[in-house]
Every structure is written in C-alpha cells, then in structure tokens.
Amino acid sequence: MKYHLAIDIGASSGRHILGHVEKGCMMLEEIYRFDNIQVRKNGHDCWNTEQLWQSILEGLRACKAVNKVPETMGIDTWAVDFVLMGADGRPVSDAVAYRDKRTKGAMEQAERGLPFPELYARTGIQKQVFNTAYQLTALQREHPEQLAAASRLLMIPEYFNYLLTGNMLNEYTNATSTALVNAYTRSWDDTVIAALGLPRRIFGPLNLPGARVGRFTGEVQGAVGFDCDVLLPATHDTGSAFLAVPARDENAVYISSGTWSLLGVENEAPITGEASMLANFTNEGGYRYRYRYLKNIMGLWMIQSIRRELNGVSYVEDSKKTAAAQRQWSYAELEAEARGCADFTSRVDVNDSSFLAPESMTDAVKQFCVQTGQSVPQTVGELMQCVYASLAAGYAGAVRELSALTGKVYTSINIVGGGSKDGYLNELTARTTGLPVFAGPTEGTALGNLMAQFIAAGEFDDLEAARAAIRQSFDIKEVTP
Ligand code: LRH
C-alpha cells in the first residue's frame, strides 16, 4: 500500500491525515491531532512554531509506529503569516499571528505608498488588515532591523518544509495571499513591492503545487525513523480545501468552513474591476492557476470564541486568563441552545471589524446589538442563535453579491471542512439562501492536500479524475431548504 501524508494545520488545531487510493476510492485515516495555541512574545501574539514543529515530528513518529510510512507528504496551513530568515538560515523575526494588533494603522501607511485601487487592480487581493503586505508594513515601522537582516521570507508551511528538508521554496497559492503577487503575471509584483518599500530580495521564485521540496534531513530522519519526499500541495489551506469540493456542476458556490468561512467559486481569470473591489471579493491563486474568487466571512471563529469564553480558556497561552468556568460547554450543547431560541431575531454584521480579535466576542456581539438598537441577547441560547443566524445571513448576502459580480445564477452550495458537520448552520444556510446545501467532506483541506500528492504520484491522471472520485469516496449530506 502506498501512503501519502497531509499535515493540515489550522488556526486552532492541526492533524496528520494519511491517505491512500484503493480501487479508485480515496481513503483517509487520522493518525495524530494536536492543538495550536498561540504565545505572547515580545509584545505580540505569535504562533508557537517550536511547539508546532514538535507536533509535526510527533505525528511523523506516529506514522512510523503504526507501520504506515508515507512515500510523500505535504503541509498546508492558514495563509498570510510568515517568518523572516537570515542569511545563516535562522529566523530573524517571530511568527506573529495575523490577528495580533501590530497591523493597526498599517493599511493607512501602505495607502500612502500605493493607493488601494491600484493595489487591487494589480493583485486582485481583498483588503484585510492582516494581509502579509500590511504585516510587513507594520514590521518595517516597528522592526526595520529585522527586514534589513532578512534574506528570505518563508510563509508558515514553507518554514516547516525548510526545517524538514533544509530547502527554502516559496509556493504560488500561499504567496498570492500576501497581496504582493500580480494576478495577471502570477509572479511577485515588483511595482507593488517597491511602492511599499519592501526589499525585493526576500521573495524567492514561485513554485507550483506538485513540486518537490526535497527529502528529510539526516537529523529529521533520526528523529522520526524514516525518510520521505516532501511535496508542495496548495500550501494555503483554502487552496487545498477548494480542490476537494465535490461540485456537481458549474453553478455551485463553495464554502470552506473552519475558523473562517470562505465563500466563493473558481474562475479561469481574475476579476479586478471596481465593483469587485468595493464588494471586497478576492482572487486568490489556486491549483493549476485557477482563481478562487471568494469572500472571507468571520465563520466559526465567532462560535469558537464564545465557547472559549464560556469555558474560561484563551487562544493565547498565559494571557487574558479568565476565572475558572462553572461548566464546560460542548459545541453540540451550544447548537442545542441556539435551536431552543430560534425565534430570537437580533442580527449582527459578521464581517464587522469588531469581531476580528475582540477581547470578548460575547461583549462584542452584545455591543453591536446595543449600537444597532436591537434586543441584546441575555442567555447563551440567544447569543448563539444571534451568531448562527447572522452567519447564515452573511452567507446569503455573499451569494447575492457573487451572483451580481459574476452574472451567474447559483443553484447549490457545497460546504467542506470541519464546519460542514454543524447541522444547524447547514439548515439555516439552506433556509436563508433558498439553495440546497451539500455538506462534506469534513476533512476537505487535508483531502485537497492529498489530492495534489495523489496526482503528483500518478494515482490519478489529473484533477478532474481526482475530483470525480470524491463523491464515491465520501459521504456527502444533502440539506434541502
Ligand atoms: C483560513 C485562511 C483564510 C485566510 C486566513 C488568514 O484558514 O487561510 O483563507 O484568509 O486563514
């Protein structure tokens, strides 16, 4: 049996998923799962890269322990975040997390170098305060010495690939999330980079998914007990997730549902006109140069945050500690509470910036209701109902915008990712959009990562063949409006 391994790391947890192909069906097996908890470092919320690296190694050892050593492996993570590397191959920056507040004022600063309409016309990337372009602008203000000392910029998956193999490779799909890649030439945009005053030398050649990074270093082989080919999947998790959507036809809207809900379609060409810019739709680079035309919607982050607050835990270690909670809420219990308050009518705009990284999500939701003259949720059920229904309303609004921007009528919604397990959200989505929802596969991102490896290994001839196999391999639930 030939195994391939996806290491899929999201903002709150990571997993090692082994995959193989048997009689044309794709089979997945979760080998290892770990938490992703940020740390406070040098005044910023940072990814704990050391802890993540140890978890990556631990999961590799777990493959060896069950005697299922993969022939190839690939890593995908959330986008936009990076580590700057010095000429000696060591990091010269922390891996600051994208919700950290360092980017305050960075958009305005970047705007002085390059007005947003020009940036959008060139890159097609939405305006989000956490885009790499703005993080680098913020870094330049706070730590110009780090940029001066940097010889390369590695996105998070590329940093781990470097630790695994000793090779530094930049990958195209994740690079587009920096807002520094030209949507038409599909390579780094020198004009944008110069206008923002960034050093061109830190951006290496762009490699496509399927490319080989290298084999494990001797040290890694010693630590995990085997050697393996490291490949590039679409290293941006959303790029991998969209690969794994079992769409029936060209009229399906995709949602990759996790910490974020990424709602959109795949296009052959970028859309960078004014209407698209004003609606803040993005054109992220996809597998085989397709464009993911989508909108970021706040997503399960809101539900995860409220649950953490109720349970008295934080997503950043050793900070913002709340008092020990009376009880621990499960997602299923929160969903049941929401269902019990189905007639609660207050709604929030889930894309309001107050929900990006609030001290308390619960307070932010209540505050929004106060400011908009709506009844303020008093119970857990009312709070959850408000968030659930607001998310579904956000989806419906985005589908309407998408239709207007592409001139197409959409007839179904495919949801992949962990959030596709949320039955109540699926029901509300079907009801609010009036469209049938097809939910699954839940491991969409890891599957997309594996599909790039399966194709590179010749298990499937091409993407069409791999996609055709998804529906016969996984259970897809249909929810009618
Ligand atoms: C989802 C995701 C999304 C980005 C955000 C930073 O995990 O990669 O596509 O916009 O994280």
Automatic annotation (TrEMBL):
In the UniProt record, the signal sequence range is: none
Return the similarity comment.
Answer: Belongs to the FGGY kinase family.
Q: Which residues form a coiled coil?
A: none
**A GO cellular-component term linked to this record:** cytosol
For this entry, the protein name equals Rhamnulokinase
User: Where do the Carbohydrate kinase FGGY C-terminal domain residues begin and end?
Assistant: 253-457
Question: From the UniProt record, which GO molecular function terms apply?
Answer: ATP binding; glycerol kinase activity; rhamnulokinase activity
Which keywords does the record carry?
Answer: ATP-binding, Disulfide bond, Kinase, Nucleotide-binding, Rhamnose metabolism, Transferase
Name a single GO biological process: glycerol metabolic process
Source organism: Ruthenibacterium lactatiformans
Q: Does the keyword Kinase apply?
A: yes
